[in-house]
Amino acid sequence: MTARFPLMIPFEDARTYVLARCTRRAPTLTPVSDALGLVTAVEVIAQESIPPFANTAMDGFAVRSSDVATVPVQLRIIETIAAGHAPERAVGHGEASRIMTGAPIPAGADAVVMVEKTSVSADVVTVEAAVGEGHHIRPAGDDVNLGDLVFAESTVLTAGHLGVLCSLGMNEIETYPRLRVGVISTGDELVDDGGVLAPGQIRDSNRRTLISLLTTDGFVAVDLGLVHDEEAAIELALLRGADQCDAIVTSGGVSMGDFDYVKAVLDRVGDMRWMQIAIKPAKPLAFGTIGETPVFGLPGNPVSSMVSYELFARPGLRAMMGVPDPIRTAIQGVAAEPLARRPDGKTHFSRVSASHEDGRVVIRSVAGQGSHMLTSMARSNALAVLPDGDGYVEGDAVEVLLLN
Ligand code: AMP
Ligand code: MG
């Protein structure tokens, strides 16, 4: 097959090439409030225990378990302990302290009886259920002990991780920085002012889709604007991007057309490789650097630009942010209908809808697979990976990339 289509680079080779040049940025100290989705550059070692003190898991009464071995039994209530307040009295023999969830266990007590198993009259509580030592007590360090390794280096911080950092009293953490990624769309035909279209004009959609993809993936998208097919303007936008951003994503001007000036400029100011990759859509890709700044020259066709982002820019940018497994994991689905294609030496990434049905991921094609037909992207939630050949028939196992 390769002999028939000799000029194309295999998909995996192209992605490997890109990933090898997308190195992590230097770590920085980041406020926990800004760290969602970032990757830790250090091990997190607990400087505090969680919980910091033994406390009750229930509203009820702190007692000596030996006092409630035989029930019912009456105990004298000596104080009420609310969450956030220190106990003032030790619980002696025949005594109990009323206690609220999260409040510290008072000295002397070694168990809590939930309020539902008690009745109160004046300052006497009748305990109706026997409880053993430690009952309903959450010991200090039950979740994390001082000195524990809490998170390994290269942990992607989710909501739960950030909560743990707050529980440990950490306001800052050493992470790889959130990437600032500049987006430029290029093309003389493009307008973005919402006005009436002159002959030959179309509206710029790629800048919005790319900015949205970047935002979804946790990067800071920097809108570097729409640039017409003029070398000077393209050069200015690219150099500005290289100066202000950690990476640049462009759309358009990387194919074989006469006015593909992005190519000319990048060749002059950057160190680029122009690739024809054995995939459909998104065959052309320019990738390289301006100085230290990686540049992803994505194709202009709207679907191609989104697919190229998914297959190359997203993994590369995630790797730059320190994500240990930057490539999206494909899952296996079942074709609910034929997913036909013709042999052409390329892997096809077909827009599909994936839905969970009877414990399986069921795949259906969406209409309009042309690389200019962006509505298919809007209607799909996955890309089916169709290896070179004749495609799949109903019931076949299909690899899919779930996009959301
Ligand atoms: P190019 O890669 O510049 O040759 O463009 C390929 C196709 O994509 C052409 O039909 C362009 O008009 C279209 N195109 C390029 N950039 C955009 C954009 N930002 N938004 C919508 N369509 C675009
Ligand atoms: Mg163009």
What does this structure look like?
The protein has four domains: 157 residues, MoaB/Mog-like domain (Molybdenum Cofactor Biosythetic Enzyme, Chain A, 3-Layer(aba) Sandwich); 58 residues, Molybdopterin biosynthesis moea protein, domain 2 (Alpha-Beta Complex), CATH 3.90.105.10; 84 residues, Molybdopterin biosynthesis moea protein, domain 3 (Molybdopterin biosynthesis moeA protein, domain 3, Beta Complex); 72 residues, Beta-clip (Beta Barrel), CATH 2.40.340. 19% of the residues lie in helices and 32% in strands. It contains seven helices and 28 strands. The longest helix is centred in the last third of the chain and has 19 residues. Magnesium ion binds next to loops.
Q: How many strand elements?
A: 28
Bin the strand percentage. 25-35%
**How big is the Rg?**
30 Å
Poorly predicted regions are none
What name goes with the CATH superfamily of the largest domain? MoaB/Mog-like domain
Count of alpha/pi helices: 7
Report how far apart the termini are.
Answer: 33 Å
Which ligands appear in the coordinates? adenosine monophosphate, magnesium ion
Helix content: 10-25%
The domain tally reads 4
- Describe the global form: elongated
Task: Describe, in short, the structure shown.
The protein has 404 residues and is of the alpha/beta class.
List keywords for this structure.
single chain; alpha/beta; Molybdenum Cofactor Biosythetic Enzyme, Chain A; Molybdopterin biosynthesis moea protein, domain 2; 7 helices; binds magnesium ion
